[in-house]
Amino acid sequence: MSSTEARPPFPPFTRETAIQKVRQGEDGWNHRNPDKVALAYSLDTRWRNRSEFVHNRGEAREFLARKWAKELDYRLIKEMWAFTDNRIAVRYAYEWHDDSGNWFRSYGNENWEFDTDGLMKIRHSSINDLPIKESERKFHWPLGRRPDDHPGLSDLGL
Q: Structure pTM?
């Protein structure tokens, strides 16, 4: 977990590279591997996720492991909302169920800030959970990366 390998694309972002960075984040989280996903964050990354605060890459890894142990059959779609030189604003939704079979669609917004190596150093996330019936699910693909031809949030009216 001590790797500080660079993660292109690097700031300053263009519209194209910001969209690419968002898709990379979506792909990583959809694979749900906390060891691998944590490497996209700087060693001193700082997060606010709901009411939980993360203070470094190790804590981010622990957070992700807990999250995906609770949020089963997790499928996520992210969409770039806005960007500047080293910041990206993202909106997203994900579907998951708990260990009792209750389904949820969680809606959120994130503000990201990156260092010069393309590692995320700040992540602020606000999320709301909506209970749904399994029949109301909209995210249907095998676990892992969302296929390129699967509709995004705007296409789904979310």
A: 0.95
